[in-house]
Design a protein that fits this description.
Blueprint: H1 2-17, H2 26-29, E1 38-43, H3 52-59, E2 64-73, E3 76-84, E4 90-97, E5 103-112, H4 119-126, E6 136-142, E7 148-153, E8 163-168, E9 171-174
Antiparallel strand pairs: 1-2, 2-3, 3-4, 4-5, 5-6, 6-7, 7-8, 8-9
Length: 181
């Protein structure tokens, strides 16, 4: 009995010293740790901040707004504005609200089929130790620099991307940390 207790104590001590699953080496396996808490609330079109509808129009001309959400994450406030382009395709614009009230479009997003992602993006994701076939892919074009972030959602995990791949200048890079936006 004493040998079992010592063995169990040693096992628990080793487990306590082991890194948590979220602390896994992202650079090697590509899977991101859980993201920050996000407070989400729906916003009626009549309650959108002044200038937001105009910014949406300037970012995606002719976009019809269907709905909007206000998100607070990591001390930042975003408005996620969803709608359709004039051709009927769905689109979302993420807008950062500065502390001074300035609104800045930071991303233009759409869902895509994984089979339509650039081959180097697919290859970079597939090269990671814990590669998976995503059940959802969001293509996020960064307004400021034109980079595209591919947000890959693992099967059974629809709330946040499990992997993100940056595509810019013909180069694909699996990110070791979540993209800021």
């Amino acid at each position: 009995m004493r040998a079992v207790a010592i063995s169990l104590a040693a096992t628990f001590a080793l487990a306590a010293c082991s890194p948590a699953p979220d602390a896994a080496n992202t650079a090697e396996n590509g899977v991101l740790a859980a993201g920050p808490e996000t407070a989400i609330s729906n916003v009626a079109q009549s309650d959108l901040p002044a200038g937001l509808a105009e910014l949406v129009e300037a970012t995606v001309p002719g976009m019809r707004i269907a709905e909007a959400e206000r998100k607070e994450r990591d001390g930042r406030v975003y408005y996620d504005v969803e709608g359709t382009r004039p051709d009927g395709t769905e689109v979302e614009i993420d807008v950062l609200a500065g502390a001074d009230g300035k609104l800045t479009a930071v991303e233009v997003q759409r869902d895509i089929a994984w089979t339509t992602a650039p081959a180097p993006v697919v290859a970079a994701a597939a090269a990671k130790k814990d590669a998976f076939t995503p059940e959802r892919v969001i293509e996020s074009r960064q307004v400021e620099d034109g980079a595209t972030i591919y947000e890959l959602f693992a099967p059974g995990s629809p709330k946040e991307p499990a992997m993100e791949v940056k595509w810019q200048g013909g180069k694909a890079e699996v990110l070791g940390e979540r993209w800021a936006h």
